[in-house]
């Protein structure tokens, strides 16, 4: 059952209009659908309506009930032979939201009824050609018990509402914009509204609503601010105006992903809506801002212009991630935002690109499309858009996007259409650049500078190689923008500014003149291309860049490289050469011109997982030991400095200002180093911060530090945290997650015990991820030598698959990394994958991930 991109066929029937009527009830919801269908082109094929778990109770065509012989079912699909070109088809089904544990289609969450239709959930609600190139106008009537479901929301504009007999009421919503079925949404429940408004650039007033449980209302202010900022930003930056009279956001507790851009009715995982200082960290605030923006931006990049088929997913996701990243950069520190985005890309996407599940941003085939909502499609997809924006420059890029939106408004299009609009609007040839859409794998760019003192010339020799990935043994050279600068080590001056050179060949050389001594190379500045740079840079050059590079990303990167060199040297059996690292950190924390938020990023050690990615064979124990030792040395050597920072960064009274947030972040880093130094009062200091904090950022940072140690304060803090927040699901998630991520020698047993905790459940995706996805990301714990970590995660996958295959499938990739480890670990991981793959009645979702991981 493999679907291939090359097999795309245009739909045989269109559905310009659909009217839906819902009699809502968690135990039995009646769904009546009235589809106006028209034959597309001339053919004599029947109408095929997708269904998943649906049994038709009645089918009629043009008002006449069909008898059993006039329609048939084939693997869930309802097939009706129709004589003419235009008909009205009506169906009736009954569904059970309360037993929908997959959280796809119409389901119950808390006391709410809500929907998730992307990518193929609509077919679990009603019979329909459930594919994104069938665009329809929706007219939706909802009926429900008024006491239990006082609020009834759907896409578009509210048209009528009124009371019915038996304590029920009704609402009718009409969405004037034709849309694919994956953007359908509906919510019924007892919700309170944070109501506001936004006046668009043409002067239209839009009613905004953020709908949550009554007692969560005080936690919706940040999301509302993010929404209004996003609306203004999209007008300013892309000329995109909102197009309906209302825009609603609903928060639900049980949600498979982050959020969903349904037209005019975005549905969110509550973790990306609710925040106050007591319960949300600064990164939580940032995530809310960026997810609210992401979903709002989809209104144009996704809803008004949508995808022709699911192979084009990056068309909307890559572009929209790029848009939300740019928005967050504009709202805060562009330098720090770039560092964070690259960290995510390297942690998630580079690993994906290097493993058995590697795929191009526009995949060629899939068994289950839900498995392709990946870091590759989203984050690498965003990097590809970012490179085009760089190559075109801001003005031409804007011309390209204007052309894209104008040309394709109301259409379902392809990645190729996007690139074509960039070419036409930006007046550029992107033929070779298109390989970024078809070739998987992270390119490696080797850069060798050689200086000739005679002529004062520097030659840069560059080479690119793209590793083989599943199904792609041989790769063509790509078009890679190489952004670089050359510094005079004596004066610290940049030579001729910054350049972008397009590397188009497997090998290329370039020469620059006029250097009295060998210049220092600053390469892939701003992380302009999503590649791995191999440049043998000396510790001296790295130290120079760490102190002087005016590109903040490259400055950060130089420090990371220094740390990586020291750590890999010691892992390879050499001495731990910490001097250069400590000097650079000392210089960075003493540099008063630097933003503290940047400093906090720059002085932090790379994660254990990222260090693993730098090794041929990952050795989790050696990595942990080396990183621990370096952390201790940095803590000891700069003890006075960390103490001073920790004291200086304390604040009276909470604020969300950039300065206050930066202080909290750097304070956490300082506390970590103090505790890592084994100072006797370290745990007490951490407990004090934990206990006195007036905000979750500082409290959680201290908790995480204590959780990784063996102090008496550890248990005390964990218990106090739990008691303080019991009943607040999002904070209890943090309690599970912090322990699952902790670098404690007994973390495996602790996670095992947490799986039996009364608050643990696999039915809530946030809770399941807080424990098992977090643990699988804990390199040291998950890869414990006895294989217990592997077994535990495999058990969780098998159990969760019965409830929620999508969420279960997301836990498989960590086991798929078996080739990266020693033979013993590799064999144990493989055995778990085999056990999963052999489980009877496995979902397509998990089956695809497990079998591909074994291949
Ligand atoms: N389109 C949503 C977003 O990125 C994500 C939907 C994911 N759903 C899924 N079943 N994979 O904003
Ligand atoms: Zn998206």
Automatic annotation (TrEMBL):
Keywords, ordered alphabetically: Aminopeptidase, Hydrolase, Metal-binding, Metalloprotease, Protease, Zinc
GO molecular function, one term: zinc ion binding
Cofactor(s) essential for the protein: Zn(2+)
Origin: domain of life: Bacteria
Annotated ranges, domain Peptidase M1 alanyl aminopeptidase C-terminal: 540-855
Record domain Aminopeptidase N-like N-terminal: where: 74-183
The Peptidase M1 alanyl aminopeptidase Ig-like fold domain, residue ranges: 441-535
Entry keyword Zinc: yes
Catalytic activity: Release of an N-terminal amino acid, Xaa-|-Yaa- from a peptide, amide or arylamide. Xaa is preferably Ala, but may be most amino acids including Pro (slow action). When a terminal hydrophobic residue is followed by a prolyl residue, the two may be released as an intact Xaa-Pro dipeptide
Domain Peptidase M1 membrane alanine aminopeptidase, chain residue ranges per copy: 223-433
Gene3D superfamilies, A to Z: 2.60.40.1840, 3.30.2010.30, Neutral Protease Domain 2, Peptidase M1, alanyl aminopeptidase, C-terminal domain, tricorn interacting facor f3 domain
Family: Belongs to the peptidase M1 family.
UniProt protein name: Aminopeptidase N
Upper taxonomic lineage: Bacteria, Pseudomonadati, Pseudomonadota, Alphaproteobacteria, Sphingomonadales
Gene name of the encoded protein: pepN
């Amino acid at each position: 059952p493999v679907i291939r991109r090359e097999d795309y066929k245009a739909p045989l029937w269109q559905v310009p209009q659909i009217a839906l009527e819902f009699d809502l009830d968690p135990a039995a919801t009646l769904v009546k659908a009235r589809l106006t269908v028209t034959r597309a082109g001339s053919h004599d094929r029947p109408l095929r309506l997708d269904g998943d778990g649906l049994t038709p109770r009645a089918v009629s065509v043009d008002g006449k009930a069909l008898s059993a012989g006039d329609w048939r079912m084939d693997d869930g699909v309802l097939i009706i032979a129709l004589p003419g070109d235009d008909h009205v088809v009506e169906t009736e089904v009954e569904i059970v939201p309360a037993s929908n544990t997959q959280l796809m289609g119409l389901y119950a969450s808390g006391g709410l009824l809500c929907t998730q239709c992307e990518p193929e959930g609509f077919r679990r609600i009603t019979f329909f050609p459930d594919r994104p190139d069938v665009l329809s106008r929706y007219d939706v009537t909802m009926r429900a018990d008024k006491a239990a479901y006082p609020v009834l929301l759907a896409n578009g504009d509210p048209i009528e509402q009124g009371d019915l007999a038996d304590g029920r009421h009704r609402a009718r919503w009409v969405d004037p914009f034709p849309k694919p079925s994956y953007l359908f949404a509906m919510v019924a429940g007892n919700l309170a509204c944070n109501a506001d408004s936004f006046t668009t650039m043409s002067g239209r007033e839009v009613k905004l609503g953020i709908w949550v449980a009554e007692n969560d209302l005080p936690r919706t202010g940040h999301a509302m601010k993010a929404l209004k900022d996003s609306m203004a930003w999209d007008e300013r930056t892309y000329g995109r105006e909102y197009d309906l009279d209302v825009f609603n956001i609903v928060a639900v507790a049980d949600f498979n992903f982050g959020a969903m851009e349904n037209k005019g009715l975005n549905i969110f995982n509550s973790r990306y809506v609710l925040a106050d200082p007591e319960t949300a960290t600064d990164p939580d605030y940032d995530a809310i801002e960026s997810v609210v923006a992401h979903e709002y931006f989809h209104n144009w990049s996704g809803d008004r212009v949508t995808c022709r088929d699911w192979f084009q997913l990056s068309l909307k996701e890559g572009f929209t991630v790029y848009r939300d990243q740019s928005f967050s950069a504009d709202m805060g520190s562009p330098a720090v935002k770039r560092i964070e985005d690259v960290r995510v890309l390297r942690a998630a996407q580079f690993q994906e690109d290097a493993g058995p599940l590697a795929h191009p941003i526009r995949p060629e085939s899939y068994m289950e499309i839900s498995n392709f909502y990946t870091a590759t499609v989203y984050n690498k997809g965003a990097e590809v858009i970012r490179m085009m924006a760089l190559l075109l420059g801001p003005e031409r890029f804007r011309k390209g996007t204007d052309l894209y939106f104008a040309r394709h408004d109301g259409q379902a299009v392809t990645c190729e259409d996007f690139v074509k609009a960039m070419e036409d609007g930006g007046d550029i040839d992107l033929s070779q650049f298109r390989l970024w859409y078809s070739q998987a794998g992270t390119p490696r760019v080797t850069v060798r500078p050689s200086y000739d003192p005679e002529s004062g010339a520097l030659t840069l020799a560059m080479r690119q190689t793209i590793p083989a990935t599943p199904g792609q043994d041989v790769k063509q050279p790509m078009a890679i923008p190489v952004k670089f600068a050359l510094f005079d080590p004596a004066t610290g001056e940049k030579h001729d500014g910054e350049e972008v050179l397009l590397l188009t060949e497997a090998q290329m050389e370039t020469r620059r003149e006029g250097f009295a001594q060998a210049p220092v190379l600053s390469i892939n500045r701003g992380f302009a291309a999503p590649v791995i740079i191999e440049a043998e840079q000396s510790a001296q050059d790295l130290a120079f860049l760490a102190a002087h590079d005016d590109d903040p990303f490259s400055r950060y990167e130089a420090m990371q490289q220094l740390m990586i060199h020291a750590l890999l040297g010691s892992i390879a059996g050499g001495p731990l050469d910490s001097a250069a690292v400590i000097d650079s950190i000392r210089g960075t924390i003493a540099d008063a011109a630097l933003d503290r938020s940047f400093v906090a990023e720059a002085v932090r050690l790379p994660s254990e997982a990222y260090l693993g990615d730098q090794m041929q064979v990952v050795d989790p124990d050696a990595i942990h030991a080396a990183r621990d030792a370096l952390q201790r040395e940095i803590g000891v050597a700069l003890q006075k400095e960390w103490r001073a920072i920790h004291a200086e960064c304390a604040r009276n009274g909470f604020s969300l200002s950039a300065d206050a947030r930066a202080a909290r972040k750097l304070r956490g880093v300082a506390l970590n180093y103090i505790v890592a130094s084994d100072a006797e009062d370290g745990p007490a200091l951490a407990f004090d911060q934990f206990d006195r904090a007036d905000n979750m950022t500082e409290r959680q940072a201290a908790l995480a530090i204590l959780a990784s140690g063996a102090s008496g304060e550890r248990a005390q803090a964990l218990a106090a945290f739990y008691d303080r927040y019991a009943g607040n699901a999002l904070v209890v998630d943090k309690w599970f997650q912090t322990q699952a991520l902790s670098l404690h020698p007994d973390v495996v047993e602790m996670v095992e015990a947490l799986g039996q905790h009364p608050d643990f459940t696999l039915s809530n995706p946030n809770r399941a991820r807080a424990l098992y996805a977090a643990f699988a990301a804990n390199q040291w714990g998950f890869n414990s030598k006895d294989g217990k970590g592997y077994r535990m995660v495999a058990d969780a996958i098998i159990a969760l698959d019965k409830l929620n295959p999508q969420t279960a499938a997301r836990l498989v990739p960590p086991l798929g990394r078996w080739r990266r480890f020693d033979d013993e670990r590799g064999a144990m991981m493989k055995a778990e994958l085999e056990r999963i793959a052999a489980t009877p009645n496995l979902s397509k979702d998990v089956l695809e991930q497990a079998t591909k991981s074994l291949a």
